[in-house]
Each structure stands twice: as structure tokens, then as C-alpha cells.
Amino acid sequence: MAAASKVLVIAGSAREGAFSVKLAKVAAAALAAAGAETTQLDLRALGLPIYDGDLEAAHGVPDGARTLRDALLAHDAMLLVTPEYNGFPTPLVINAFDWLSRLKPEGSAPAGLGASAGKPCALLSSSPGPLGGLRSLNLMRQFLGLTIGMLIVPQQFALVRAGEAFGPDGALLDAKAQQSVDGVAAALLRLSNALRKA
């Protein structure tokens, strides 16, 4: 029997009560129910400063970028939940992948973009507004696909009015929303499993 796909789950916000963190937990549960092993990564815990070329020249790439690279290498796929700040993904998530892109090969470890290249990825978004973070979702698709080199599955889901979407236990109140999350999770695992068999 083949080992389960390992999926790295990341929320694009780390603030207390963040809707993206809540949705990431729902997505991780959906992935686990579909047979995957999941790890949730806190981007804020990486301790990455805002990218600055002078900082990089003086001190090199921070270790938090290596933590992200190693997490990507240890997993078969990634699922990211992005909020929307003024129509864009959060600086937290963009900055983390900016730093990842600066890593050069080190010993047996590939460059940062080598760790992300061809990695299956699924995207969800959340927002209190009526679009559910759709604008940031589409920008994240472009950034991770074209710049970071990941394979983004076509299926995606934007959770609208996220402030009203979760019950006291953290579960989604709307069955259709849960079905959409399940569908994205299933699509990611189909791609991940197909690549593992190739």
C-alpha cells in the first residue's frame, strides 16, 4: 500500500482569530479525511524580516527561509489559504516566498525555487466581504505558478462573509462551502498522487 501524500498547509495570516487560519484547519481536516498526512506551518514563526537586498548582502538569507524550503521538500504538495488585504495577498505570505526565492543550493539541498518547482499546490481564500478574497486568490495563483514555479490545481474556493461562516467548533456552517473545500482537497491529492506514481 502506497504511503499517504504529505501536504503542507499554510495560512496567509497569523493574527489571533484569522479566518484564513480557521479555513486552513478545515482544509487540513478535509485532506486528512481523504487520506493525506498534513502539517500546518505558521509563517510568522519563521521570523522573516521584510525582504531587503542590503540586509541579504550583509547577513545572508535568514534561517526561516530554509525552514520553509525544508518543509516544502518534506511534503508532496502544499495548500495555501490567503486572506485579502486591500485586494492583495498578505505581505506575510509574499515576503516568505520572496525570501525562499533568494536561497541558493546548499550542500544536498536545492535552491529555494528548486524546492518549490513543480510542487502541486491548491488555493483557498477567505474574507469578510462578498468576494471572499477572490482578488488575492487570483494574484496568488499567478505569483506561485509563474514566479515560484508551483503546479496550481484549477479548482479553488473563496469563502465569502468569513466572519459568519464558522460555528463555535470551527467547522463551516454551510454544507456547500464544506463541499467546495473537500473538492479542492480532492483535486490536490489527485495531482499529488499522480505525480508520485509517475
UniProtKB/TrEMBL annotation:
This is NAD(P)H-dependent FMN reductase. One of its GO terms (cellular component) is cytosol. Residues 6-161 form the NADPH-dependent FMN reductase-like domain. InterPro entries: Flavoprotein-like_sf, FMN_Rdtase-like_dom, NAD(P)H-dep_reductase. It comes from Rivibacter subsaxonicus. GO terms for molecular function: FMN binding; oxidoreductase activity. It comes from the Bacteria.
